[in-house]
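thread from #wetlab-drylab

HS: before we spend reagent money on co-crystallization trials with NAP, can we at least see a predicted complex? here's what I'd submit
DV: go for it
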Amino acid sequence: MAETEALSKLREDFRMQNKSVFILGASGETGRVLLKEILEQGLFSKVTLIGRRKLTFDEEAYKNVNQEVVDFEKLDDYASAFQGHDVGFCCLGTTRVKAGAICISVLEHSWDLSSVMGTMDYREV
Ligand SMILES: NC(=O)c1ccc[n+]([C@@H]2O[C@H](COP(=O)([O-])OP(=O)(O)OC[C@H]3O[C@@H](n4cnc5c(N)ncnc54)[C@H](OP(=O)(O)O)[C@@H]3O)[C@@H](O)[C@H]2O)c1
């Protein structure tokens, strides 16, 4: 019980900080689940999807989601899409199971995200 209350307080404290987040790869299986969870939890005041194409959502819960379309081969040209966010999640790539022998990732593509990330809290899943 005390643990649940502590978690609730942590969530509320985090919400009060009005943090922003971006998600790379929100159209994929992993990114879709992450996006849904982030929206359900309501932890971030701003949610941005960064991808190579714009996504369509019918659900009301997605109406305030921002979207930025970028060319991953020219990331430096799209630095502004990443800026202004406190947290970033990368769900790019694909699973080996689905793609047979192919598993792409940010590293395998040599996409250098460091110049566009600044000092934000950035995680690859
Ligand atoms: N930590 C974990 O427990 C866990 C579990 C499962 C997967 N993963 C990892 O999560 C990553 C994604 O897996 P997934 O199953 O979600 O894959 P997925 O369903 O195939 O989704 C891949 C995502 O990456 C994007 N993408 C792929 N190639 C791209 C490219 N060349 N340029 C721009 N965007 C590209 C796709 O965009 P489009 O829709 O535009 O194609 C899509 O949003 C993989 O690295 C996987 O290993 C981690």
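DV: Residues 25, 27-31, 51-53, 72, 91-95, 104-105, 125 surround NAP (CB under 6 Å).
HS: ok that's useful, forwarding to the group
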